[in-house]
Design brief:
17% of the residues lie in helices and 37% in strands. The protein is α+β, with helices and mostly antiparallel strands and 276 residues long. Strands 1, 2, 3, 4, 5, 6, 7, 8, 9, 10, 11, 12, 13 and 14 form a 14-stranded mixed beta sheet that branches. Strand 8 and strand 9 form a beta hairpin.
Amino acid sequence: MSAVLSACAPEEDGDDGAASVSSAGASQQEAADADEANEPMPPIHVDLLEEPLMAGRNVRRDAYEQALQHCQDAGFPTTPLSPQQAERLGTAHVQLFFSDEVQVLSRQSWNYLMKGVESQRCTFQLVSAGLHSRIGPDATIETDLETGETTRGPTDADRLQRISEHVDSDQVMETLGYSGPVKMTVAGQPCARWTAPDGATVCLWSGGRQWGFSDEIDARGCSPAPLSTYESAIVLAQTAPTEGMGCKVTVRRFTVGTSFEAADLEPPGEALEASP
């Protein structure tokens, strides 16, 4: 099985009403679930863009635009960010790689520095930070994406073992105040969309339950949520509430069954490559 899926808007998959299941149908479903649980996990790659928002606004980008305006109003010689750099402000690029032999979780976020004000100049610089974590059969390697410092430790082989899990979504999510789920399709993949009490929505991949990826847990993306959240559930789409803090998550690329190149698993460079 091999698929390369470009990002697209969520699509609703018809009626979301509950259906009664006969005992014979239930037995067939249990048998199908058992078969799925024994299915080897293919290589999975997910490329996401996270954007934390406050009342629908990108706070870091707004702060940059205000600082830039102040410099220009003061008549200081000013070197702004390029439009492409300014677009990255306040966002984070997340890369997820899963296979039976390796797991990579990577998040790189962008901010800006302003230099030269003491000499009545304004020079803006794009800076990045984040974490790149790789678990292999022999070692765990973590790289600080701000300093470039790398630490190496023993492998955590248990985290490479994907175990099929299923919980009662009604019990867990309704207890937390969520409504749903609504069956959706995002980037050609099935997901379950839940609506939180604050109006935010999150659509969790429902095509990987046999490998331990749940679509039935509270797993909204974006920092300060740890990267390890994506080990349990993969967010395919997320919207922020209109008031207060929230986060928008967009899928840039999703592949299932395509082998990884060695370079794909290395820490990212400064540039954010365009999605093909």
